[in-house]
Write a structure and sequence with these properties.
Blueprint (H helix, E strand, L loop, with lengths): L1 E2 L4 H17 L3 H4 L6 E4 H6 L12 E4 L4 E2 L10 H20 L2 E2 L8 E4 L2 E4 L6 E2 L27 H17 L8 H11 L12 H7 L11 H11 L2
Antiparallel strand pairs: 1-3, 2-3, 4-6, 5-8, 6-7
Helix pairs in contact: 4-8
């Protein structure tokens, strides 16, 4: 359950996510990849005698059902075909989001969940319409930030693809990237990132290299192209 409270940035993020869920509830396409949220008012909760402390300024709340994190299963316990299928399912939901005209703009491994046998996306505080080609304040997570974001460029499909590449790389390798500061993350993504996979997984190497290209022009153009490469190149 998410509420409008706390720091002003959090409140703005909540209002932004709330507006996105309101759009999802009117879109069959978007509702297929998001959790079935319910927007309720403080008065509604009071009428149900819900025992929770609620700020007086709170007007609405977004209630989401529990869902299982999608990438918690260890890749090393799966055969190659199952790893491929696991990644394809994540790509499916990203393709729907992009084809509906949106970029997530803050992808993390934790933002993929499984609910009733379906992969879903969560946490849309930073979601952007693809028509919103304007610079925003730096509100991405450094671990997943594409190099161009450290130079103040706008978020695009390619920044989503880069973040997804980091998610895939960490899941396949079983290792988490590390840096001690924002500056260190910038050096890592802009200069030092090296893709190193165990021999068993070298079939995924070219896919990751193109998802994680330092220059966005060298990355895949869209999710469909990634899916094609994943199916055709991984054997």
């Amino acid at each position: 359950m998410q509420m409008k409270q706390g720091h002003c940035d959090y409140q703005q993020g909540f209002q932004h996510e709330l507006a996105f869920y309101q759009k999802c509830m009117k879109s069959i396409l978007l509702s297929s990849i998001t959790l079935p949220g319910e927007i309720v008012s403080k008065a509604f909760l009071a009428s149900r005698a819900v025992d929770i402390e609620i700020e007086q300024s709170l007007a609405q709340m977004l209630i989401l059902p529990h869902a299982v994190p999608y990438f918690t299963v260890s890749a090393h316990t799966l055969p190659i075909a199952s790893m491929q299928h696991h990644l394809l399912r994540a790509l499916d939901v990203m393709q729907v989001l992009h084809e509906a005209g949106w970029i997530h703009a803050d992808l993390k491994q934790e933002h993929f969940v499984e609910y009733h046998g379906q992969v879903k996306l969560i946490d849309f505080e930073q979601v952007q319409s693809m028509t919103q080609q304007v610079k925003t304040e730096m509100n991405a997570t450094p671990r997943y930030m594409a190099p161009e974001l450290f130079h103040g460029e706008v978020k695009t499909i390619q920044t989503d693809i880069y973040a997804l590449g980091i998610i895939f790389y960490e899941w396949l390798s079983g290792q988490r990237l590390s840096a001690k500061s924002y500056t260190d993350w910038a050096y890592l993504h802009c200069q030092r990132l090296q893709i190193e996979l165990p021999e068993k997984l070298l079939g995924f190497q070219s896919l990751l290299l193109k998802m994680l290209a330092k220059h966005k022009e060298a990355r895949f153009d869209n999710i469909c192209a990634i899916k094609h490469a994943l199916v055709s190149e991984i054997v």
